[in-house]
Structures are given as C-alpha cells and as structure tokens.
Write a structure and sequence with these properties.
The chain has ten helices and five strands, in the order H-H-H-H-H-H-E-E-H-E-E-H-H-H-E. By secondary structure, the protein is α+β, with helices and mostly antiparallel strands.
Length: about 250
C-alpha cells in the first residue's frame, strides 16, 4: 500500500500532468481540480502583475500564465509566491522579441509585491552619524528598510507603471530609454518611484554592503551631491541602522 506521502506526491503530479497516474481520484474529478489550479494560479498572477496584464490584454496574459505554470508550477501553498519566477520566465520566453521589455515590467511589479509583505522598521535620522568622528564617516555602513527594492532597466518601465495607474493610459514611448528606481513599503502602502541614476547607484552600493566612501566613489558623487543623496536616504526614512565597517551588529551605531 502506498504511503500518505506517496499518495500526496502522486496527486500533486497529476494536477500538473494529465498523463501522470494517480490513485487518489478518478480522471474526471481530477479535471475539476486541474481547472481550479489553473484558475487560481492565473488569478494570483493577475493580482500581482496588473499593469503587465493591462498592457498585453487578458487573452495574451492568460496564455503567458499557462506557459509559466507549466515551466514553474507552484511549490507553495501560499499563492503570493506564484509570481516569483514570472520575470525570469518572461525574459526567456520573450527574448529577442519586441516584447522583451515586459520582463523588466514584471520585475518591477514583483518588486512592489515582495516589498508589500515586508515589515516597516523604525528609521534613524541623520543625527545617527554624530556617533562617529569625521575620520570614520567614510567607513560607515547603512542598513536599509527590509522592503527596499531597487530596480533598473534599459526600458522606461517606471514610466509605464506610473502611467498605468490611471485607466486607459496611452502606450509609453519605448525610445525614452533606461530608468531606475525603487519600491518601498510605507504604512499607507507600497511606494514606487523613479530615482536619478547617481542616487540609484549610491543606494545600490550601500544596499550591497559598501561603505559610504566606497559608495560615493562608485556613484561619482561630489560633496554637494553627497549631501543631497544622504538627505534623501534619511528624509525618505530608508535607513534603519548605521554602523562602522567591521563592527559586529549591535555594537555600534543605531
């Protein structure tokens, strides 16, 4: 007799493959389950990628959802995660076509969705830097809000997303070029914003663990511009902790 685990695996395999044997339910009943699985999978994608769905239309989105489900069947009981690999799927599925930019639009929408489930942590202000002497400042590191997602694209995907917050938005000129920006959870919802390239580069370096000095060099900032971008980071409440390079967490900073 098959074990419960074997029966569960058999049932799960049969839901995604009509040719897979299943001892749990007859074929006719399995068709009902398969229909429910496809419906809920597509519905979860529609909720996660509403702008992409609007730009391609319901029929083509449903076709993409079917292909994606075959390539990346859900491995979790939480439907939130069915969109985790959608951007990667689209990058492969649409490579070399006029629709390749949709993969980056999906990356932005997934960034927004994944940010939404993160906590909003109490930020620190610029006065946290006063804990360090001037010679230490270039060796200081930042910890950002856990929801901060930084996205860049050779296409104007932020313009597309922002324009499509209104009904019947016209197409965005793809020749507008590269854009970069962020998604960030706020108490009132997730903010999506474009960022200047040098600000994006600076925040990206800090998010990857660079010190303030190294991030400044990477972004090519001069003194006045550094003051502006630091003002943005603290003013937008991105920073949750400052610490000195090489200091164990909790031993320095805030």
């Amino acid at each position: 007799m098959a074990s419960l685990r074997e029966l569960q695996r058999s049932f799960a395999a049969a839901l995604h493959d009509a040719g897979a044997p299943c001892a749990v339910a007859p074929a006719g009943r399995l068709d009902i389950y398969r229909g429910n699985v496809r419906h809920h999978f597509r519905a979860a994608l529609e909720m996660t990628f509403p702008v992409l769905r609007r730009r391609v239309g319901d029929d083509y989105f449903a076709q993409l959802a079917r292909h994606h489900q075959r390539a990346f069947p859900s491995r979790s009981g939480d439907l939130h995660w069915v969109g985790r690999d959608f951007a990667a799927f689209l990058a492969d599925h649409l490579a070399g076509s006029d629709y390749a930019w949709l993969a980056d639009l999906a990356r932005l929408e997934w960034a927004r969705q994944s940010a939404a489930v993160e906590a909003v942590v109490a930020p620190v202000g610029a006065d946290a830097l006063a804990a360090f002497v001037p010679a230490q400042l270039e060796h200081v590191k930042f910890t950002f809000q856990p929801s901060l997602r930084l996205v860049e694209s050779p296409w104007p995907v932020f313009s597309v997303w922002l324009a499509n917050q209104a009904e019947n938005a016209p197409p965005v000129d793809q020749s507008a070029g590269a854009e970069c920006g962020m998604a960030l959870a706020r108490a009132e919802g997730v903010e999506v914003a474009r960022l200047a390239p040098d600000l994006f580069s600076y925040l990206s370096a800090l998010a990857e663990g660079a010190t303030l000095g190294a991030a400044m060099a990477r972004a090519g900032l001069d003194g006045p511009r550094l003051t502006q971008v630091l003002g943005y980071a603290f003013g937008e409440e991105l920073v949750t902790r400052v610490s000195l390079e090489g200091t164990p967490a909790g031993d320095a900073g805030s």
